[in-house]
Design goal:
Layout (H helix, E strand, L loop, with lengths): L14 H10 L3 H8 L7 H17 L8 E7 L5 E8 L2 E9 L4 E4 L4 E3 L2 E2 L2 H20 L5 E8 L3 E4 L7 E4 L3 H6 L7 H11 L3 H4 L1
Parallel strand pairs: 3-7, 4-8, 7-9
Antiparallel strand pairs: 1-2, 2-3, 4-5, 5-6
Helix pairs in contact: 1-3
Length: about 200
């Protein structure tokens, strides 16, 4: 499918973060300096951009398996969706989280980084429910969305539990795991959901 005017398929991984960085520092020279200066307003955003770009690169390999992927989907209230993957195994809302050199542990309901609790799981589940409601409303049928956290640059990722409510995956395994899941959607269903998801009006209501 070719991109159309005002088409979310044109978005690149991390585009929402790029816009935020430009908003924080319009000056290109200062922006470049701040990207590498720990403690600056831009430093953490630049780190997040790296995570989204790496996740997007890995997700791009799914296309050969009949998947479609969207990035940086703007939503109501200013929240954006990092990545949305739509394929034979279903619809997956993917959140990129970069934790360089840290230890990530995920039990049934909690995710810690270097033993410190995070809200990653609750936020991912809430986002998936919001996406499901929007897609279901515009597709005219119930669309289930599974949340995924793509962990970038962690020293170690440990996942306990055979079937956790949120998939927590190292970025290098993202495409392998998703493409290996049991198919639940036909090619026509995949194409229809993607056609709806790439329209901006799907997400603004």
């Amino acid at each position: 499918m070719q991109p159309l005017p005002d088409d979310l398929a044109r978005n690149r991984p991390g585009d929402a973060v790029r816009r935020k960085i430009l908003e924080l520092q319009p000056n290109p020279v200062l922006r470049l300096i701040d990207r590498w200066r720990p403690g600056s307003a831009i430093y953490s955003w630049a780190a997040g951009l790296t995570g989204e770009r790496l996740t997007g690169r890995r997700l791009s390999t799914l296309r050969r398996h009949g998947w479609f992927v969207l990035h940086a989907i703007p939503g109501a209230g200013g929240a954006d969706i990092d990545h949305l993957a739509i394929g034979p195994a279903g619809v997956f809302a993917i959140n990129s989280k970069r934790h360089p050199g840290k230890t990530v542990w995920y039990g049934d309901h909690a995710l810690t980084v270097n033993r410190s609790p995070t809200r990653h799981i609750a936020i991912s589940q809430s986002e998936a429910r919001r996406i499901s409601r929007a897609l279901s409303r515009h597709c005219g049928t119930e669309i289930s969305v599974r949340p995924v956290i793509s962990v970038v640059h962690a020293a170690k990722v440990t996942v306990k539990g055979a079937n956790p409510p949120v998939l927590v995956l190292e970025v290098a395994r993202l495409d392998q795991v998703l493409s290996g899941l049991t198919p639940t959607l036909s090619p026509d269903q995949v194409a229809h959901i993607y056609a709806v998801a790439r329209r901006p009006r799907t997400w603004t209501g």
